[in-house]
Structure formats: structure tokens, C-alpha cells
Amino acid sequence: MQLIESKMHKNQAPNIASALGLAACALLGTSATAQAEINKDWQFDTAVLYYGETDRVMATEAMINGKKEFADDHFLNLRLTLDTLTGASANGAVAQPDVQTFTRPSGNGQYDVKPGETPLDDTFRDTRVQLNAQWTQPLARDYTFSSGVHISKEYDYLSLGVNGSLAIDFNKKNTTLSLGGSYFNDTFNPEGGIPIAFTSMPVGDSKAATWDDTFNSTRLTDQDDKTTTDLLIGVTQIINRRMLVQLNYSHSIVDGYQSDPFKVLSVVNSEGLAQDYLYENRPDKRTKQSVYLQSKVHLDSSIVDVSYRYMWDDWEINSHTVDTRWRLLLWDDSYLEPHFRYYQQSAAEFYQPFLNAAEALPQYASADYRIGEMDAYTLGLEYGTKLSNGHALSLRAEYYTQQPTNNGFAEPGALSSLDLFPSVDAVVLQFSYSF
Amino acid sequence: MGKQAISVHSQGAGLSVQFNAMASPCELLLDSTDTHLAKQLGNLVANEVWRIEQKYSRYNPNSVCTAINNSQGRAVSIDNETFALLSFAQQCFNLSQGLFDISSGILRQVWHFDGSDTLPTRSQINALLPKIGFDKVLFNESTITLPAAMELDFGGIGKEYAVDKCIQLLKQRSNVPALVNLGGDLAVTGERNDAQPWQVGIEHPGFEQQKTMVVSLRSGALATSGDAKRYLLNNGVRYSHILDPKTGWSVIDAPRSITVAAPQCIQAGMLATLGMLQGRGAHTLLDSQPLPHWIIP
């Protein structure tokens, strides 16, 4: 066996199909071209993923994706995703030299935050079920149409979406133009309802008879919604047998409730001490645009995949993402893939880490670090292999660090000695199996 | 081995012409409802398959193959077609570094793939090895000299060759979209009417519980190598009916079945066979080829 395998070493293999083709043409006295596609039965990809932030959120996710090719290049793709999220999430308030007390988003109870610590609400708990169905089929020669639906349900969130796209091949299928659009409608009914923007978080005895009225006076409504419309245009160009590039432009309009009902801003005095906590307020319109450039190069024993995305929006968040994957093809149908990602974003124009008691209220404000200035890095490694039964498995481990930075806010008094921009570290572990 | 008849049936929107050849059920599918044309093209195809069978079958006492095998080391005259087939076999022998060898059929004298656990002995095999080796065969455009006691067997390429020849004949005779299927090795003349692909179910011999693989074919061919019923099981090791001509030994852990899609049926068939000869390495070989393939491990 080993003798046989070594006799037909991998390096010699690539010539066999074409050499046989030439021999066959000599035998039959013809030249020939052909294209045949093989349809299998349902093909399944499954994955479990663990995401854990140090001292904060932990998420586990299970996914199963089934793909079936029907007659004539018609594909159906179904994906079911389940995830659970538990842990603590920053509530937006700044750290203080003294103990701070906050009311839980539901209004049922309070929690204390120790001096010097970033306030985290540790009641974060959610389970999400997501179902995607996508149908793809050729419309005519060189025209491929795809359409899908998306349903995602959480305890307090429902997202419904539809999408459609058209891919047009030309230039002997070396160039593909893609046009796509999607529409999502999300309904949010958080426990405790949606707070009135910029009202004070009530803090007091939640067992008192008057508590419910006090809490409800800060509530606007039980639920709100938003819609997202995305449009995409892209070109994929095969440069040569080893290289392809892709360029996409996308335009996205989000309309509706986009504040986070669980987030507040600290109102601090000139000594940096918190006087009050106000519920945040974000604009209800956001227009995002992005350009994305990707290049894949197939070298002799590795594949290099480099992409860059520039995103900008009318909240004045600009971001740059550079993502690099280098797949090293090993012997035995295995690969090792190092992954590096760098992300940098500027702050939204209404982002501020806290409000100053002496200043008038702005029209909009949020202290959510996720829309502040930050750098983020991902370092990862994936190993994948094909089993003797044709199934494939892969393991991925990644380290992620998010480093918020101060984009020019003075830190008065007590705040100057506290960490207002703590970094968030996380690990991602994923196991995938395809059959 | 006498000539048999063809029969025409309607199938879907088209017609099917059925006949038996090369110990297999054979079929010509036409995307047409013209039964007169179906009979004409059916006879064309069946006659070609029967011709090739008669000429190269080692069971037919009057075949070219038998004449060569009975030549006792004397030179035998050959025609252009035989020369072309021998040249193809030689290229496959060279490409596979001796793994594909049409002189290795003699090993069947000691290997009986009946599902039993009876393995030949080392000495039985060693006695046959000197009688194997296509590099010992001398041939040119007009003659072949096969050393005495050696045998050639065209069974490994005859069916795929017949498929390709039938496609050539059909294309010369008619523009009607057609598919030729000789016992699972098949090819099409091109797309069906309305630019639709052919939907082909590939059966895996002796592997009944395996779901039929559905293949969408716009041009070119598919060939399958393997037979799940032909093996020996000894001490938990599965010995496939694929034999390594250099050791005389069965290729252990060969996939049960390999199907390859390629422009020509003979190219697909040869690649499937070469994949089988790699045993466990079938994936490694086939994954590095730019042709679709399907392996049942």
C-alpha cells in the first residue's frame, strides 16, 4: 500500500487527468470539452461554537446547515441556529470611587457595583432560535437567481427578513456581476418595556407600593421596531487560474428604534461624581455604506485570502477591517489556517462616555462602548481534515481583544484615576463537522 | 454471444432504446419522440457496441484478443483501431507507473472474488508475476508480439471506449440529444432540448442500500469503477477485486466504488480505475484532479 501510494506521489497527480484526456483524444481522434456537475444528496454542515469574554458575556451556539441540489442546478439551503447568551454586559455608566446602585432593566430589583469597577448588568440571559431558508436556481443561461427568508426569535426580540439576488455571468464566466437586496423587520419588546429617552433611571425600594408607578413613569411603551433595507452590488473577476478578486458596495438604511433600552449614561459633576443615570437616546435613522475588496490566491500548497472593508455611516462611524487567512494545505487532505483580523472604528458623533451635569442635554447621546472609538484584533488558528469516510471536520480557536479608546473627552476629578475605557478580551472555540 | 435485438420504449418526454451487450444492460436515451429515428440510431449504437465486444472479448474464440492471446509468442497482424487501443493502454501503463496493466488479467487464475475468505498463496501469485508486464509486449502500427503464456484483457477499457465511439457515431448521424449508457458507464452528445442537462442516476453495483446518486450532465461522460460484491474478507481485512499487477496482491482498503465525470468516458473510467488502485489514497489522487468525482469508501 505504502509502496503504491509513494509511487503516485501527489506532485505527479495533477497531470494525470489531462494526460488521460490527451490519450483519450488520440484514441478517439477527437478533441473534446465537457462540464459535468455532480449532485449529492443532502449535505450537512454542523458546528458548535463557544464564545467567552473575560468576566462578561458567554455564548454557546449550535448550527446545522443542510444543502440539497435538485435537478438542473437548483439548490435549497436550510440553516437552523440555536444560541444562548449569559453573563454580564456593560450598562453604560462609568466606574466611580464609591459603590453604585442600579435598577435592573425589568424594574424588579437592584444591583450594586463595587468602587472602581465598570458597571455591568449581570442578568443578561437570552436564547435565540434562527432559521434561514435559501433557494437558488438558474433563470437562464448565465443568470442565477437566489431568494431566501430569515426568522430569528429571542425571548424579547423577533426578526423577520427576506432577500433576493441575481448573479450574471459574462466574459466566459470569468466575470460575475451580483445585485442583491434584503429587507428586515425587527420587533423588540424588552422586559420592563422601553424607557423614555433621557429620563432618570429610578433607583429605590422595588418592594414599595409606589415602586411600580415610579418605574412605569419612565416607560414609553412595551415594544418598538425597526426596519433594515440593504442593497448590494458586486463584481467578481477571475484573474487567472490561481487568483480571483471581488469588489462589493453595499448601502444600508436602518429606520426605527435603535437605542439600547438597557443602557444609561452617568451624569457627573465637576468632581467626576455621578449624580444621575439617564437612559440613552440614539437617532432613529442610520444610513450605512461600505466597500469591500477581497482577493484569493491559490498558491502551490496554500491559499491566501485577504480582504479589506471600509464602512462609513451618517452617525459618523467609520471603520476599517483587514482580514487575512492563510490556508496551508498539508498532506492527507488536511489544512492549517492562521487567521488575523484588525478592526478600527471611530466614534459615533453622539457617543460620549458620560454627561456633564453643568452642560445642556444634547439631542442624542449614548455611552455604549460598541459605538465608541476602538481597535480590535483577532488572532486565530484553524485545523481541518477529511476523514476516510469522506466527512470533514475542523477545529478553530481564536483570541479576540477589543480596545476602546478615548476620542478626546476630558475626565474630570475622580474619573481621571478610573479606567473608563476597559478592554474586552474573548476566546472563540469552534468545532465543525460536515457530512 | 450471438447478436440480440434492440427494443424501443417511451421514457419521459423521449425514447429509450434497450439492448444487452458486454454482460450488461445497455441503453440509448433520445430527447425525441420519433420512433423511426430511435430504431435507426438504436441499431447504429447497438451494432457498434456488439462489434467492439466481438472484436475484443477474450471469451469470443474468433476475437482479435483471442488471436493475440493464442499467438504463442508469434507476431500477429493488427489494424489501426487495435493499434490505437494498445497505444492508449500503453500510455495508461506509463502514466500509472505500471499500476494499470491490461496483461494483469491472468491473476484471475488464482484470485476468486466470491465473497469468501480464500486468499491465494504467495507461491501461487509468484508463479504468475513473470507473465505480467505490459512493458514486455512489443507492438507497432501493424503487428503485436505477446510473449508466450501472457494474456491481454481489454475488459478494463472496452466498455468506456464503446461509449465514446457511440457518441461519435451519433453526433455524425443526428442532432437529436442523446445519452449512451453501457452498464453504468455513460456519455451524452450534449445538452438536452431547451438547454437542459441530463439527469442521470448512477447505481453502485452490489451496493443496494446506497441511495442512487443523481448527476446532472450537460456534456461529457461518467464512468464508475468498483463492485461491492466482488471482494474477499480474511481476518477482518477486505481484499478488493482491484489487483496490483506488480505485487499480484489485492489492493487493500480500496474504495467500494468511484465515479468520475470527464469529457470522454474512457478518460473518466481510467481515472476511476487509477483511483481504485490507490487504495486508501484514492481521495488524494482524485481531489487533486480538476474533475468531479464521487467516492463510496
Written description of the protein model:
- The complex is a heterodimer of chains A (435) and B (297).
- By secondary structure, chain A is mostly beta strands.
- Chain A has one domain: Porin (Beta Barrel).
- Chain A is 6% helix and 57% strand.
- Chain A has three helices and 24 strands.
- In chain A, strands 2-3-4-7-8-9-10-13-14-17-18-19-20-22-23-24 form a 16-stranded antiparallel barrel. In chain A, strands 16-15-21 form a three-stranded mixed beta sheet, with no helix packed on it.
- Residues 1-14 and 31-39 of chain A have low confidence and may be disordered.
- An eight-stranded antiparallel beta sheet of chain B has the order 1-2-3-7-8-11-15-16.
- In chain B, strand 5 (138-139) and strand 6 (143-145) form a beta hairpin.
- Chain B has two domains: 7-57 and 156-296, T-fold (Roll); 64-155, Orthogonal Bundle (T-fold).
- Chain B has helices at 35-56, 64-69, 80-95, 122-128, 155-173, 265-277, 282-287, and strands at residues 7-11, 14-21, 24-30, 75-77, 138-139, 143-145, 178-182, 185-188, 198-202, 213-217, 220-225, 231-234, 237-243, 250-252, 257-262, 293-296.
- Chain B is globular and about 60 Å long.
- With 297 residues, chain B is of the alpha+beta class.
- Helix content of chain B is 30%, strand content 26%.
- The longest helix of chain B is centred in the first third of the chain and has 22 residues, at 35-56.
- The chains are: A mainly beta (435), B alpha+beta (297).
- The interface between A and B is large, with 43 and 62 residues.
